[in-house]
Design a protein that fits this description.
This protein has a 22-stranded antiparallel barrel. Strands 4-10-11-8-9 form a five-stranded mixed beta sheet. The protein has five helices and 39 strands. The longest helix is centred in the N-terminal third of the chain and has 22 residues. The protein has one domain: Maltoporin, Chain A, CATH 2.40.170. It is mainly beta.
């Protein structure tokens, strides 16, 4: 019988249902009268202003509210409407229609939000939440619940000049659902393939009569199997938020969340080096729980002193406890049965970060300036323990944990950004200096200290023409000390910092009279000492450091037209070349990195006639072929996935059913399942999955 390391599914469903009932009761307690349906959106438009599938203004590209088309750097946004229409189950799934994002590297593997941006891994240090870095450990990774965000901004290319430690491919900033000034209430039930059952709620609005206090409470409970045996996808999630705005110049928003999830501990299939993946799943259903409990609490404070000066402070503490049960198979000789090993791994990860900034607006002659000066501090700590990978499963269950590795880092950064506007020109100039001290320890070895410091910069220029076409160019750099250890000729040791430079030119086009934006960009990124995974001769996956170059171009279009039609289209062509690495890799392409990725999604909602209220959505995703290892000895085939959505808003049928909608989503409709190998470790794509959701918004 499969061992469960956490609460039963019945408990999850009961707790989720109880939370929904309690929340609905609390909402009705505030106002017991029957209200008319409010046609308000779920997004708050606080730090990310959006209209359908098109984002209008954002704070992430510059740390001040700026029209996205005027930022001289490629930016993509996943909006609330896109999330609602596509119903992504993970952050990786939400990124599948974004240019230059590759979340396909590891096939079906929901353990981590592991993805690539412009050809570089971005999971460890490329995820931000509400503008603050969300550092991940070796296996204790913060997992994103898509239902808990109102959008995500993808800033392409180096972003260290404002945000400090981050990778060369860019960053993904998650925008947490935050309190709304209008009353908003929603409950949703979902069920589908692999016994997936989910209940969620989202409540927001004023908490007092004068509207100076706003609240939001978002929660979710899920019990689910997956297509892999003994690999669950269970979760409990609760995120409270409060905003206090005593006057027009002052605002304090407190954002918190706690969640507990259980997924499988192993996602790979057995690969014998032949170039063809076997059908043998490596995991052992009796020892396959990956349990994570994570939480975060923080605030955003803003005070407008006068017409010139605005002060902000953003702060957050977050932590994860990870408990990983995993197993593997290995060969002891040709023709002999495969042998199994089991292992137990625990990791504790903690982060603290505070960002203090001053925004200053002034003019120098005909030039208007919006400047930001700031200092931030971050503390990161992880500690890992592991049992020996020997003996029977019973031996592993009773084994004593031994120290594996640990690190503690303290980082301080100072930065200055100025965006200057003159006529139709916008010039961005950003500079930052970081100091990082990292103490590292491994079992049986003395603690070592590594001190790193570096300057990061960005300069970009854009010009708005009278036709809505905005050409731009930028040059930017990044600096990223790495979590974990790498293996090279000197043995296993702390990783060196990754540094990179990018040259980018592009154009953005706001189509006149339409809610539509089209963009194109060409980029060339040089990276030194990038940390990547490699499968050594004995099949153990280790980290190494490569020098690489990524060069390519991307096209992207987003539109939400007034006739009910919304569209997303993207195409990326790139080549990531290894310029320095282990023997046999120099001059080769990075594994699991397709040269071509294309996606197209369209959604249409009938607003009138006999079909009023009906919504139809369809999408196609093409992932080109790639190499299965960094020696380029075999290939992963190209794959094409088709997604679909069907919805109906019952408010069009009967007025008393305002707010009730039914939606069916299908992922990988034609059940395309091929191998995808990365650094010699091999996975399979997830097969077809279908689920239906019933939502009541009131």
């Amino acid at each position: 019988m499969r061992k469960r390391s956490t609460m039963s599914r019945l408990e999850i469903v009961l707790l989720g249902s109880a939370a929904i009932i309690a929340s609905i009761g609390a909402a009705y307690a505030q106002d017991t009268t029957v209200l008319e349906r409010l046609t308000v959106e779920a997004e708050s438009d606080d730090i990310l202003v959006q209209d359908g599938y098109v984002a209008m203004e954002d704070r992430i590209g510059t740390k001040v509210d700026t029209p996205i088309v005027e930022i001289p750097q490629a930016i993509s946004v996943i909006t609330q409407d896109q999330i609602e229409d596509q119903k992504p189950r993970t952050l990786n799934e939400a990124l599948t229609y974004t240019a230059s994002a590759n979340p396909n590297t590891f096939g079906f593997d929901t353990r981590y939000d592991a993805f690539f941006l412009r050809g570089f891994p971005a999971g460890y240090n490329g995820v931000f939440r509400d503008g603050l870095r969300q550092y991940n450990g070796l296996s204790a990774w913060f997992k994103t619940e898509p239902y808990g965000i109102e959008g995500a901004t993808i800033l392409k290319g180096p972003a260290s000049s404002l945000y400090g430690i981050s990778g060369p491919g860019g960053i993904v900033n998650l925008v947490t659902k935050r309190p709304k000034e209008e009353q908003f209430r929603e409950i949703e039930l979902l069920g589908g393939s692999h016994d997936r059952y989910q209940a969620a709620f989202d409540l927001s609005g004023p908490a007092n009569e004068d509207g100076t206090l706003l609240y939001r409470l978002t929660g979710l409970g899920r019990s689910s199997d997956t297509e892999l045996p003994g690999y669950p996808d269970d979760k409990l999630y609760l995120a409270p938020a409060v905003t206090w705005q005593p006057d027009a110049d002052t605002k304090l928003t407190v954002l918190g969340a706690i969640s507990h999830s259980v997924t499988g501990g192993t996602a790979i299939y057995h690969y014998d080096g032949s170039g063809v993946l076997s059908d043998t799943y490596v995991g052992d259903p009796a020892w396959n729980d990956f349990a994570q409990t994570q939480g975060r609490i923080g605030y955003e404070f803003e005070h407008r002193v006068n017409d010139v000066l605005t002060l902000r402070q953003n702060l957050r503490y977050s932590a994860i406890d990870a408990d990983l049960e995993y197993s593997g198979l290995y060969s002891i000789g040709a023709g002999l049965p495969l042998q199994r090993y089991w292992q137990h791994y625990k990791e504790d990860m903690q982060n603290f970060i505070v960002d203090n900034m001053a925004q200053i607006e002034f003019d120098t002659g005909p030039v208007s300036h919006t400047a930001v000066a700031g200092v931030d501090y971050a503390w990161t700590y992880y500690d890992a323990q592991m049992t020996p990978a020997t003996g029977t499963l019973d031996d592993v269950r009773s084994a004593t944990f031994a120290p594996y590795s640990g690190q503690e880092a303290n980082q301080t950064g100072i930065y200055l950004h100025d965006q200057m506007e003159w006529n139709n020109f916008t010039l961005f100039a950003s500079g930052r200096y970081d100091w990082v001290a990292t103490d590292s320890s491994e079992a049986g070895q003395a603690k070592t200290r590594q001190e790193d410091d570096a300057f990061s910069g960005r300069i970009g220029l854009s010009y708005r023409t009278e036709w809505g076409i905005i050409p731009y160019a930028n040059y930017s750099t990044s600096f990223a000390p790495n979590i974990g250890f790498v293996t090279d000729a000197s043995g296993r040791q702390p990783a060196r910092p990754t540094i990179a430079t990018q040259k980018e030119i592009g154009v953005k086009y706001e189509i006149p009279g339409m809610n539509a934006v089209v963009s194109a960009a060409y980029f060339d990124i040089d990276q030194e000492d990038g940390s990547v995974f490699d499968a050594s001769g004995d099949g153990i996956q280790i980290q190494r450091q490569y020098d690489m170059n990524s060069r390519g171009f991307e096209l992207e279009a987003n539109a939400s037209l007034g006739n009910g039609l919304s569209l997303i289209a993207s195409y990326t062509h790139l080549r990531v070349k290894i310029e320095q690495g282990p023997e046999g890799t120099v001059g080769k392409e990075l594994s699991a990195t397709p040269n071509d990725i294309f996606s197209l999604w369209g959604h249409y909602k009938f607003e009138g006639g006999a079909l009023a209220g009906l919504g139809l959505g369809a999408g196609v995703r093409y992932v080109g072929d790639s190499y299965g290892d960094d020696q380029n000895t075999f290939k992963n085939e190209a794959r094409t996935f088709v997604d679909a959505a069907l919805s109906y808003d019952f408010g069009y049928l009967k007025p008393e059913m305002d707010g009730v909608s039914l939606q069916v989503n299908a992922k990988n409709l034609f059940d395309e399942r091929k191998q995808t190998c990365s650094a010699g470790y091999c996975y399979r794509d997830e097969g077809r999955s279908v689920f239906a959701s019933l939502r009541y918004r009131f």
